[in-house]
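Subject: design request, 314 residues
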């Protein structure tokens, strides 16, 4: 299959596929952080549920497309149940108390995946086969791209709905939203369920792209990846996490590639950290957020200038 602008490069296909997958994961985190004001350190829990559900079903059943789709559905159902239960137990807590408790739940899933060796093979993880149609990297690339675009517009529609407006009100002033009669916990749980289900889908795609899964999908590093992608791209924008995922995955690929050629870049993670620092310094609201701020500032200056000219003319 010929894909425009990709030139059938295997490494480029893999890189772009990873960008699409992590863009979905980062958008799910943006629903929590950007639109509801919830900071979670355990969002990898849902990513891992999707990865393990897909991996286990494809390993133990004939790897057909039907089983793959079933694994995604089962993973989303489990994520919805878990996010609802965890939400009821934790979302009454504020700020860092909630964040630390979500980290504890994610660690619980990680420990379970390490100890339940008969099902998960422990820290070593396991490999599995995927449906024949997905073996072609070009096909899998297109599936991930289409899913990312569909989810972007679905989540955008959700955030622009009346419910999305309530979530933004909760982010801005939770006490005032509650005083207006909104059931804050109810709305937070809905946001958590949507974010969890979306992250679960990303986890399923991630496992299928590697054809391997281990306990690393539950670690805090996975959550931090989504957090950094969201912050660098622009919190509360949806487009920001997509751009953030692209920049971080590309920087990771580029720097690790340089490390193989030049000894200077052996400690490439340091340069990676410098990129983060520069991004935060020059784009404090994220790339998309800063651009939107600059545009709004220009419009405001233009409006003030027009008003001033009319005042002089009058």
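Subject: RE: design request

Done. Sequence follows.
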């Amino acid at each position: 299959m010929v894909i425009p602008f990709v030139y059938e490069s295997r490494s480029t296909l893999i890189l772009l596929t990873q960008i699409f997958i992590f863009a979905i994961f980062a958008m799910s985190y943006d629903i929590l952080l950007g639109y509801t004001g919830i900071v979670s350190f355990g969002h990898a829990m849902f990513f891992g549920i999707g990865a393990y559900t897909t991996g286990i079903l494809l390993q133990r059943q004939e790897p057909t497309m039907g089983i793959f789709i079933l694994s995604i559905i089962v993973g989303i159902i489990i994520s919805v149940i878990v996010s609802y239960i965890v939400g009821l137990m934790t979302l009454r807590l504020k700020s860092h108390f909630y964040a630390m408790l979500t980290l504890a739940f994610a660690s619980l899933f990680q420990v379970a995946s390490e100890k339940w060796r008969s099902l998960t093979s422990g820290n070593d993880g396991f490999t599995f086969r995927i449906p024949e149609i997905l073996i072609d990297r070009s096909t899998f690339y297109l599936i991930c791209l289409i899913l990312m675009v569909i989810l972007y517009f679905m989540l955008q529609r959700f955030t622009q709905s009346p419910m999305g407006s309530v979530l933004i009100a909760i982010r801005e002033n939770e006490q005032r939203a509650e005083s207006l009669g909104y059931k804050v916990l109810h709305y937070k749980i809905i946001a958590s369920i949507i974010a969890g289900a979306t992250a679960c889908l990303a986890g399923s795609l991630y496992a299928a792209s590697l054809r391997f899964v281990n306990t690393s999908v539950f670690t805090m590093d996975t959550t931090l990846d989504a957090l950094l992608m969201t912050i660098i791209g622009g919190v509360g924008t949806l487009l920001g996490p997509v751009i953030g995922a692209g920049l971080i995955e590309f920087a990771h690929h580029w720097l690790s590639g340089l490390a193989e050629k030049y000894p200077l870049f052996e400690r490439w993670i340091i340069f990676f950290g410098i990129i983060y620092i520069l991004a935060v310094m020059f784009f404090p609201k994220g790339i998309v957020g800063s651009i939107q701020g600059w545009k709004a500032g220009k419009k405001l200056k233009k409006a003030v200038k027009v008003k001033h000219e009319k005042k002089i003319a009058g």
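The two ends are 66 Å apart (CA to CA).
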